[in-house]
Amino acid sequence: MTADRLREYAAAWDAFVAAEAPGAYAQQVAWARVKAANGWRAERVVVDAPGGAVGAQLLVHRLGPAPWAMGYAPRGPVMAVPDPAAVTAWTGAVRALAARRRLSHVVI
To answer: Which residues, listed in sequence order, are joined to residue 47 by a DSSP beta bridge?
Structure first.
């Protein structure tokens, strides 16, 4: 599956997570819905890599009245083949998202 498809389609994302070991529930779309009740918003950060897509569902939460938020990628990133270059590309995408969304920090 391509990164664009995984970002856009919840069912594709859930299938991707379920196919990878260990297939953590905290990366499933249903978990993002549970967390949404407490003010968390999910954003899927995914990049294409030679060994397959690498990504994580990043949960974002505002930090009070400040203009900052924090990110949390529980049990992420998800990938078929552990590859240092792919992880480097993925962390670059996380940094770009952090800059756009004004995240003070991201817990992975």
So the answer is: 54
Q: How far apart are CA 70 and CA 76, in angstroms?
A: 16
Give the pLDDT of residue 30: 97
Pairwise CA distance, residues 101 & 23, whole Å: 27
Between 50 and 61, where is the model more confident? Answer: 61
Token duo for residue 51: 């060994």
Half-sphere exposure of 82 (CA within 13 A, CB side): 3
**Which amino acid would we find at residue 26?**
A
Six-digit token string for 38: 């407490």
Distance, in Å, from the CA atom of 92 to the CA atom of 86, rounded to the nearest integer, reads 10
* Residue 11 to residue 15: CA distance in whole angstroms: 6
Q: What is the spatial distance between Cα 20 and Cα 104, in angstroms, rounded to a whole number?
A: 29
- Radius of gyration, CA atoms only, the chain: 13
Peptide bond into 67 cis (omega under 30): no
